[in-house]
Amino acid sequence: MDREADVTVSESDRLHSQLSRFEDMFPGYRTEIVEGNIVMSPVKPHHNETIWGVRDVLKSQLAEEWGFISDVAVLFDQDNEFCPDLAVIPDAERRKNLSVYSPELIEIAVEVVSPSSVRNDYEVKNRAYARRGIPNYLIFDPYKAHCVTLWNPGPDGYLGRDTFPYGKKMSVETGIGKLTVDTTNLPVDPSA
């Protein structure tokens, strides 16, 4: 599948410069523009461990023409510039090393829930990712100890949904192949 897209430079530069200022002022926080608001989420070790673990497992299953971006701006519209925890895009696009990408490039979006991102990950991004036609959306939740897979994007969100409790293998059929993640060793918040 060949997916390429252009982003209007002036608009993406404007939004990205807003995010960059906040990221520099508040290290240890992930910054996005969600529904026209700048949202900052503190990053905890379980968050990063989950991202790295999922990336490593998926990388071994993907063809070499696919690559990853992580916490890089993706311009959805004037009010939403998300930074997916992990996104699978064509590797040729990843190698361009841009500061902002188009959502049309994303084949799989992955978010890891933090206490401050619950609504954004489960509701706002569900609708936004589906409206832009991102085929698969995976939500890993170290607080509920489960993974939610979403597919079949529609105008109001994804029409398909499965929930896999941690401790089992999670599989998802994608346009780039069947992918499996063993959730047994993914970190779970001690309060879960």
Question: What's the SSE blueprint?
Answer:
Layout: H1 9-25, E1 29-34, E2 37-42, H2 45-59, E3 66-69, E4 73-77, E5 80-82, E6 86-90, H3 91-94, E7 100-101, E8 108-112, H4 118-131, E9 136-141, E10 146-154, E11 157-165, E12 169-174, E13 177-182
Parallel strand pairs: 4-7, 8-9
Antiparallel strand pairs: 1-2, 3-6, 4-5, 6-8, 9-10, 10-11, 12-13
Query: Averaging pLDDT over every residue, what do you get?
Result: 85
Fraction of residues in H or I helices: 25-40%
Backbone CA Rg: 16 Å
Order of strands across the main sheet = 3-6-8-9-10-11
Q: Hey, roughly how much beta strand do the residues contain? A: 35-45%
Task: Please state the overall shape, judged from the principal axes of the Cα atoms.
Answer: globular
Helix/strand-derived category reads alpha+beta
Tally of separate helices: 4
Jot down its keywords.
13 strands, 4 helices, disordered N terminus, three-stranded mixed sheet, 192 residues, 38% strand, six-stranded mixed sheet, alpha+beta
